[in-house]
Amino acid sequence: MGRFIEGCERRQALLLADCVDDYVGAENAVRVIDVFVDELDLATLGFEGAAATARPGYHPATLLKLYLYGYMNQVQSSRRLEREAGRHVEVMWLTGKLAPDFKTIADFRRDNGEAVRAACKQFVVLCREIGLIVGGTVAADGSRFKAVNTRDKNYTPGAIRLRLAQVEASIERYLDKLDTADRQEAGVAEMRTARLNERIEALRRQMRTLQAMARQVEVAPDRQISLTDPDARAMATNGKGTGLVGYNVQAAVDTDSHIVVAHEVTNLGHDRTQLANMGRQAKDATGVEHLTILADRGYFSGAEVLACEEAGVTPICPKPLTSGAKAEGRFGKPDFFYDAPSDIYRCPAGETLTKRTTTIENGLVLNRYWSSYCRSCALKPGCTTGNERRVTRWEHEHVVEAMQDRLERRPDAMRIRRRTVEHVFGTIKDWMGRSHFKMRRLPNVGTEMSLHVLAYNMKRAIALLGAPGLIAAMRG
C-alpha cells in the first residue's frame, strides 16, 4: 500500500496552530469581506442592530459578514448559514466564533433591505475610486428568475380558461365512466359509483374555486394573481412551455471590468421600459459625463431612446423589424429615403411622399406621408395592397435613426453585450443552484439580489487585483 498517499491517524495528537488566524491564508476571500465591512459606516447606510431572543443583540457587521460569506460560497439559506457558523473555520474566523441562530440571520436580511442595497452601491463606488471602473460603456440585459411561487398557484385569464376546460373535460370523462358503472353488477356498480361521484364532486368544487378566482383576476390591476408570492408574475421565456413565475432582474455591467454597476428587480415581463432607467442608474454609478449603453432589441422603444439622449446616455440597441410588408416580399420602410431638409420621403420608384396628416397615438406624435401617384405606379404590387403606400414617422425619429447609424458603425456591439452581461446572469443562477429566490415580495427579493450582486462584484474585483491588492486598495 506504499504507493498511495496516506492520511494521518485520527487519534494521533497534533500540535495545532496557536490561533484561528493561522488557518486563514492571505489570499482568502474572507479577509476581503472582513476589511470591506469594517470600512463601511453601517449607521449611515441604515443598518439596524440585530437582536436574538433572550440575549444581547449581534452587531450588524457580524451578520453582514456572515451573509457575504454565504452568498460568495453558494450558501444562501439562513439555516445552512447557522450550521456553517458552527463548523467552518473560515466563518469562525470571520465572525469571531459567534454562531447566530437561523431566525436572527433571516430577520437581519429581511429588516435591512435598503441598507444592504446601499452597501452594494458602496462597493461599486469603491471600485470606481480604485480605478476598476474607468470605461464609459455598459451592457444591459434582463433575465427571468424563479420566485417562491409555482405555476399552479399563479392565475391569469388564459390560465384559468385552460384549467376550466381541463376540469370540464375531466367531469365529462367521469360521467361517461359513471354511465358504464351503472350497467355493471350491483355490488361493483355501487362501489364504483360512489368513488366516481366523489371525484366528480371534487372536480366541481375545483371548478367553483376557479370561477371565483376568475372574478378576482378580472378586478386585479394587471389581471394576474399569485398566491404564494403576491408580487411574482408569470413570465414567458424563449422555450415553448418553459414559462415561469418570478421576477425580471435588470443589470448594467461595465464592459471593461465586467463589474455590475447597477441592477434592479422588477416584476414586468418585458424590458421595453427599462433602457433609460438602467442607463441613468449606470451613469450615476460610474460617475462619467457621457455613457454608452448596449442593449438587445427587447429594450427598443423610441420613447426610451429619446429619454436616454436627454439624460446624457448614448444607447445602442437594434430596432426590431415589425413590418409585415417586408415579410410578405414588399418594400419595407428602410427602402424609403427620408430627406430631412425638405421633410419628404422618396420611394423606390423615385416619387415624393409628402406629409399629409399628424396624429397622436399612445402619447407619440406621428406624421404620415404618401404620394398621389401610387395607383399608376408600376412598382405598386411590390409596395402596397392599398390605394397608396403610407409611411409613418415619429416626430423624434431622428434619434432612432442616429442610433441605428451608431450600430452599423459598431458591428461588434451586440457581441460585446452578450459576452459582458449574459455571463453574469449565468454565474448567479449557477450559484443559486438553478433554484428560486429564498424570499418573497419584491423589496425582499431586491435585497437578495443585491447580496448576489455584491458577492459577484467582490469575486470579480479579487480576480482582477487579488485579495491582498484589493485589501490594500480599500485601506488606502
Automatic annotation (TrEMBL):
InterPro entries: IS1182_transpos, Transposase_11, Transposase_InsH_N. GO terms for molecular function: DNA binding; transposase activity. The keyword Coiled coil applies. Residues 232-458 form the Transposase IS4-like domain. Keywords: Coiled coil. Residues 20-110 form the Transposase InsH N-terminal domain. GO terms for biological process: DNA transposition. Residues 164-220 form a coiled coil. NCBIfam families: transpos_IS1182. This is Transposase. It comes from Methylobacterium gnaphalii. The lineage of its organism: Bacteria, Pseudomonadati, Pseudomonadota, Alphaproteobacteria, Hyphomicrobiales.
